[in-house]
């Protein structure tokens, strides 16, 4: 769930305004308060747990912060992904990280995951284009309630994981449903099916 607040500000003003504890984004100078529900949070937690196992197994310098912002180039927009994988080795080059947990370089962000809620149009349209422009190598849209439009997830609509990955600076997409094993270009050995993710791990074998 999300709620737009009636105020337009620059990204710098947003950082100075943003209170501790809440989850907020800036969409083209409009403050948006994110209000995730329980199932949404369970899915986030399950994905973070599974990815952290991969980091450890592969000895990768990656972390998943509780909250971090992605500043979109040349726009007064900043997004707080549901799951954001951060490359710690690049953080010394990030001018806004220490003070505001904000990344401005694609080299800092191997993977972004968005678990779809009622603002699905942002996830499939604005955010997808912005992450592509930013240069995020891989962007997952986890649509466990099949909320997305038919042009995005097919007809009839069904729960779908769309994995977008950069090829020559443009996103290509693979989609996964049911018992299909997802294929992540960033983590090719990740052993998860779409159904396991949709069930937030409660049916995990």
Number of strands: 12
What's the CATH topology name? tt1808, chain A
Indicate how many domains the architecture comprises. 1
Task: Indicate the proportion of strand residues.
Answer: 25-35%
Main sheet? 6 strands, mixed
- What share of the residues lie within helices? 25-40%
The CATH superfamily is identified as tt1808, chain A
Total DSSP helices? 6
The CATH architecture: Alpha-Beta Complex
Spatial gap, N to C terminus: 30 Å
CATH top level class name: Alpha Beta
- Reading side by side through the largest sheet, how are the strands ordered? 4-7-9-10-11-12
Structural class label? alpha+beta
Order of helices and strands: EHEEHEEEEHEEHEHEEH
Mean pLDDT: 91
Radius of gyration: 16 Å
Note the overall shape: globular
Uncertain runs: none
Describe the structure.
The chain is of the alpha+beta class and 205 residues long. It has one domain (2-198): tt1808, chain A. The protein has helices at 11-17, 38-58, 97-100, 120-134, 150-153, 194-198, and strands at 2-8, 24-27, 30-34, 62-63, 69-71, 78-79, 83-87, 102-103, 111-115, 138-143, 160-167, 170-176. Strands 4-7-9-10-11-12 form a six-stranded mixed β-sheet. Strands 1-3-2 form a three-stranded antiparallel β-sheet, with no helix packed on it. Strands 6-5-8 form a three-stranded mixed β-sheet. The longest helix has 21 residues, at 38-58. The protein is globular, with a radius of gyration of 16 Å. The protein starts with a strand and ends in a 7-residue tail after the last helix.
């Amino acid at each position: 769930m999300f709620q737009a607040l009636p105020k337009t500000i620059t990204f710098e003003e947003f950082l100075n305004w943003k209170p501790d504890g809440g989850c907020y984004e800036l969409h083209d100078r409009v403050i948006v308060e994110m209000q995730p529900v329980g199932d949404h949070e369970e899915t986030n937690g399950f994905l973070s747990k599974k990815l952290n196992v991969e980091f450890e197994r592969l000895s990768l310098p990656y972390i998943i912060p509780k909250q971090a912002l992605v500043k979109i180039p040349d726009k007064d927009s900043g997004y707080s992904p549901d799951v954001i994988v951060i490359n710690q080795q690049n953080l010394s080059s990030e001018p806004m990280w220490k003070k505001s947990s904000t990344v401005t370089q694609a080299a800092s962000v191997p993977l972004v995951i968005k678990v779809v809620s009622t603002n699905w149009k942002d996830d499939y349209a604005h955010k997808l284009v912005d992450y592509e422009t930013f240069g995020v190598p891989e962007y997952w849209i986890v649509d466990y309630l099949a909320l997305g439009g038919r042009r995005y997830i097919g007809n009839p609509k069904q729960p779908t994981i769309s994995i977008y990955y950069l090829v020559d600076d443009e996103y290509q997409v693979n989609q996964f449903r049911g018992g299909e094993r997802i294929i992540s270009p960033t983590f090719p050995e990740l052993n998860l099916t779409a159904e396991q993710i949709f069930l937030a791990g409660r049916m995990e074998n």
